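<context>
A single protein, sequence plus fold
<sample>
Here is the protein in question:
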Amino acid sequence: MAAKKPENLSFEEALDELSQIVVQMEQGELSLEQSLKQFERGISLANASSGKLQQAEQKVAILMGNDSQAPLSNFDSNLD
């Protein structure tokens, strides 16, 4: 099965795959060619993830009314 294009992956999927690439490369069992291919894939995943993160930051800024003085608060996932 062919790997999905990085821009078609969710942020979480891209991070998971990037993490797997790091583990593979740290093990040192890949050939030079495989390492370069994985490195290239990792760069693509990192760039796509960065773009998605910037989009999310822009959406947050819009939702906050672009008020740079708006106070930020910690996220509490335990709200009932």
